[in-house]
Amino acid sequence: MAYEKVNELNLKDTELRLGLPGTEEEVKQEQEVSCVRSNKRQFDEETRDEQESMPPTKTQIVGWPPVRSYRKNNNSVSYVKVSMDGAPYLRKIDLKTYKNYPELLKALENMFKFTIGEYSEREGYKGSGFVPTYEDKDGDWMLVGDVPWDMFSSSCKRLRIMKGSEAPALDSSL
Amino acid sequence: MGLPLPSKVLEHILSFIDSNEDRNSVSLVCKSWFDTERRTRKRVFVGNCYSVSPVTVSRRFPKMRSLTLKGKPHFADYNLVPDGWGGYAWPWIEVLAKKNPLLEEIRLKRMVITDECLEMIAASFKEFKALVLVSCEGFTTDGIAAIAATCRNLEVLELRECIVEDLGGDWLSYFPESLTSLVSLDFSCLDSEVKLSDLERLVSRSPNLKSLKLNRAVTLEGLESLLRRAPQLTDLGTGSFSAEFEPEMFSKLSKAFAECKQLKSLSGLWDVIPEYLPALYSVCPGLTSLNLSYATVRMPDLVGILRRCWKLQKLWVMDLIEDKGLQTVAMRCKDLRELRVFPSEPDLDDVSVALTEEGLVTVSRSCRKLESILYFCVQFTNAALVTISRYRPNIKCFRLCVIEPFAPDHITREPLDEGFRAIVEGCKDLRRLSVSGLLTDKAFEYIGKHAKKVRMLSIAFAGDSDLMLHHLLSGCEGLKKLEIRDCPFGDSALLEHAAKLETMRSLWMSSCFVSFGACKVLSQKLPKLNVEVIDEMYPPESRPENSPVERIYIYRTLAGPRLDMPEFVWTIHKNPEVGVSNLAIK
């Protein structure tokens, strides 16, 4: 339980973190709120409409809904949305139906009619310009294939197949 | 005139009284009854491990054979209590090992227990029979191995939803060949694979084994093999129930289940593949308890099972059952007493809308014995609550979680005040209540006035002002545990009704507007309470008196201030010189 300011230094400045360069860290910090006093009257008619048209920033309230973390960790309904840059609509797949990465990647290739390059731990995916990425439980975007399959399948919330120019940024941040 | 009742006679009479509530009443009659009662009490229950010292309990009940202890407050389940807060088993085990060596059973809930503790249990209690740990943490599989290896008469070993540092599956192999007394084994919360052959042999030499709950790592083949060796089971937790479908495996499994003619309770079913569900059909008509809350299968598959479970009394399921599936439950499970519906997407987005208030209304209408409800849902209406209360005045436990905070009646856009009014007015035997959705102070006026028997009340994101707390603390005659988060009340109601807190076991408040100053006043006024201020961000002493604190946990205690408080927990006893500065003590 370290206090955030030690000797007036804001330790957040020197914190190491994984993530895509240019992502906004500050937004994520505000998202974990332990109280929503300010949201109290959000159900007036006008404000309701405002809420619905706002971009979907997820506000994660600590401990809500009141589901035991044991249950949360064991309960993942494993349908995840899959998007591919340039494709007109999203697809959904059930991660449970695949046992490992090769099966998953093959299914994605079939679904979107493309080829993923060769994966290597050092360099990520090379060869086709398509890079499979996923958003994990913490909201971070990760490269598919880095962690063991079980860890991936239980923490993956959605998949995104990035294309061409955006993809290299992911490789170079590692 | 009137000879006193000989204590032997009284002892004999008391031997027929098991309920601790009754025994507590007996002990209040007079000194000699108190004394006789305490010398004969075998099963001791301590609802808050900090409310009394281990030495006091040990001394009072010398013939204690079973001790149940609860540690952290309930909201710890939802990560609202920081790690390191407390709830340690060690001080209790240490005393009991010395003073009550004939202890046979220890049951702990939300406590921290170390391997050292477990080793001490194994070494100290020669007649030890039962260890049940619920939502506990702090130990590894090595500690479990010590219990397995040493307790020669072990009957019960249950680890329910514990956080265990899993060092591998070897622990199971520590059960000696000579151990044949097992009645119940639950290792469902462990990750590592145990050696199947060791488990098979253990099961084979345990003729009294009635309850077996496997962990996820046990395969379908393993399950089938174990079932063949234990057809007498009444309570089964399957492993993962998942594999590529093979007709031969399916028929073997079906046969094995068909032999389990006494199976009453079924759980586990993680990762279940729908194609294997029909293997369960033969046991369905006998089931009284079914936990499908980890089975991520869709409604049609759930219905396939549930329509066959006509004796079901307890059903736990996910919202994947949808309103339609609950219609089947309403039609077929006429004996239903308890229903829990959990959310499948607990992170607030993408929530399934095929489960609405209608599902619960349908079940409430048709299942006359339904008395315990836990229901997670995206929406609700006052009308639905009124209907439920009309059909089911026998409800004892009603916990509704409308997932969106402040959500009003989705049709009328009104608060859910009137709906909960109907619940507390209509269900006169209500013992436990959790409210949610948009609620004004009015809702709490109704609850305060009518919820006379409610012992435990949980509130979140509700109310408008101090009035809400005033209503609750001046009413709710039977209230023992109150937990509140994110509600906009301040100090005044709390201070006005401070005396009520001595009639309750505990009060939890987090993210409300109670000030540090008020906490200090309470502490001064009511020395029989521990007023704990829990604040991870700033040391409470560094804050101004009128600033609201993060979390407060207040509980009555005979043991005085606790000595194991971490840095982020403050009570007045920590810095007595800080005390009350310029606030008047009434």
TrEMBL record, chain A:
Protein name: Auxin-responsive protein
GO CC terms of this entry: nucleus
Summary of the function given for this chain in its UniProt record: Aux/IAA proteins are short-lived transcriptional factors that function as repressors of early auxin response genes at low auxin concentrations.
SUPFAM superfamilies (alphabetical): CAD & PB1 domains (SSF54277)
UniProt entry tagged with the keyword Membrane: no
Keywords: Auxin signaling pathway, Nucleus, Repressor, Transcription, Transcription regulation
Span of domain PB1: 77-164
A Gene Ontology biological process term: auxin-activated signaling pathway
Family according to the record: Belongs to the Aux/IAA family.
Segments of this protein annotated with the region Disordered: 29-60
Compartments, as annotated in UniProt: Nucleus
Subunit architecture: Homodimers and heterodimers.
InterPro entries referenced in this protein's UniProt entry, alphabetically: AUX/IAA_dom (IPR033389), AUX_IAA (IPR003311), PB1-like (IPR053793)
Automatic annotation (TrEMBL), chain B:
Pathway where it operates: Protein modification; protein ubiquitination
InterPro entries: COI1_F-box, F-box_dom, Leu-rich_rpt_Cys-con_subtyp, LRR_dom_sf, Transp_inhibit
Sample GO molecular function, one term: auxin binding
Keywords per UniProt: Auxin signaling pathway, Developmental protein, Nucleus, Ubl conjugation pathway
GO biological process: auxin-activated signaling pathway; pollen maturation; SCF-dependent proteasomal ubiquitin-dependent protein catabolic process
Domain of life: Eukaryota
Domain F-box: 5-46
CC annotations in GO: cytoplasm; nuclear SCF ubiquitin ligase complex
Pfam family membership, one: F-box_5
Compartment(s): Nucleus
Name of the protein described by the UniProt record: F-box domain-containing protein
Organism: Arabis alpina (Alpine rock-cress)
